[in-house]
Amino acid sequence: MASYRGSFLSGRIGAALRLTLSVAVLALLWVWLDGATILRRLVAAQPGWVALAILGVQAQTIASAWRWRLTAEALGRPLRMGRAVREYYVAGLLNMTLPGGVAGDAARIARGRDADGWRAAAAPVVVERLAGQIAMWLLASLGLALSPLMLGAPVWVAVAGAVAAAGGAGGAVLGARRAGGGVRGLLHRAWVADGAWRAQVVLSPAIAASYVAVFILCARALGHELPLGAALTVVPLTLLAMTLPLSVGGWGLREGAAAALWPLAGLMAADGVAAAALYGLVCLAGALPGAMFLWSRPA
């Protein structure tokens, strides 16, 4: 009982700290970059581009659900596409509204648990989420490696990107070798065996690119046409900030990263913050269908 109470309090404290961090960073940016002006830009966003961005969220949700379904089937847990889509909408809504950014994945596991236990339900979710994060990280590394050509960045930035890509690939291989046979087997079955690599090679980069595309549409809604260099460098890095489990729905971290990174591409920090904020709102709007399935029992 004491252990449960301690974990409960720890969870509440962690959630409060993440919420505090999000609010504090947003408040700092509001004061630093004239939040009233940014708010006016958001209100004046062009609805056509916003609608396209929301449609983009629907496409990436369906594609991500498809990747999850393929991963689950490769790991011996058949998953109907309709259910995968519904559960992914629920996960997206929870990830955007609850602290930590992983509540939706935990919900996918909890709602998919059956007689085989939580480990069997968790494996496809964890492996699918890992595939998405690796793809986004590789996209960001590629952008860094090409930044001297596209943005005139110093050569050391390209070297850093290449080292990050090589180090990450090497670390992944080394980690897979050192992992237990069960983990290696899961990754091999999900990503390699029986031609699974074909779908992974297409789906994961496409989904990562779709996140960038939605961000570009949000910037366009505010009247900013991002050059290719910015799209391949500062946008993936801005989005990666959301993966840190230190905020609520990525709020604050995403906007702070945009304020820090966009000037490196010759763009205004305030414009980056406005685009990042609109991206968060678009993702939340795109995930709202999850509310219809939140209280329903997975079929």
Percentage of residues in strands: under 5%
Overall geometric form = globular
Which structural class best describes the helix and strand composition?
mainly alpha
Tell me how many strands there are. 0
What is the element string, with H for helices and E for strands? HHHHHHHHHHHHH
> Mean pLDDT, nearest integer?
84
How would a crystallographer describe the biggest sheet?
A: none
For the termini, the CA-CA separation is 33 Å
Low-confidence stretches: 1-9
| Total count of domains | 1
Helix content: over 70%
> What integer value in Å does the Rg equal?
20 Å
Query: How many alpha or pi helices?
Result: 13
List the SSEs and their pairings.
Layout (H helix, E strand, L loop, with lengths): L1 H31 L2 H9 L3 H28 L6 H17 L5 H10 L5 H33 L4 H24 L2 H11 L4 H26 L6 H5 L1 H7 L12 H9 L7 H19 L12
Membrane topology: Multi-pass membrane protein
InterPro entries: L-PG_synthase/AglD
Subcellular location: Cell membrane
Provide an overview of this structure.
- The chain is mainly alpha-helical and 299 residues long.
- It has one domain (18-292).
- Helices cover 77% and strands 0% of the residues.
- It contains 13 helices and no strands.
- It has helices at 2-32, 35-43, 47-74, 81-97, 103-112, 118-150, 155-178, 181-191, 196-221, 228-232, 234-240, 253-261, 269-287.
- Helix 4 (81-97) packs across helix 13 and helix 6 (118-150) packs antiparallel against helix 11 (234-240).
- Keywords: Cell membrane, Membrane, Transmembrane, Transmembrane helix.
